[in-house]
Amino acid sequence: MRVVANTTDPVRLSFLRALLADAGIETFVLDAHISAVEGGIGAFPRRLAVATEDEPRARAVLAEAGEATT
């Protein structure tokens, strides 16, 4: 697994996941349940990860869409 993006914005996270899904890349949201601990204040970023072999293509898709990656 490789992390390709970090965000505290759930709308952006959804958008990034949709971009990658359209490209046929499966995504995994790490830290998705941290909001239960933080009280939903959005202080901790969620990490968007892809399989190691999909990382170069995922970064290319995100870059093409004008989205910065980590």
TrEMBL record:
<dbReference type="InterPro" id="IPR018551">
    <property type="entry name" value="DUF2007"/>
</dbReference>
<dbReference type="InterPro" id="IPR011322">
    <property type="entry name" value="N-reg_PII-like_a/b"/>
</dbReference>
<protein>
    <submittedName>
        <fullName>DUF2007 domain-containing protein</fullName>
    </submittedName>
</protein>
<feature type="domain" description="DUF2007">
    <location>
        <begin position="1"/>
        <end position="66"/>
    </location>
</feature>
<dbReference type="Pfam" id="PF09413">
    <property type="entry name" value="DUF2007"/>
</dbReference>
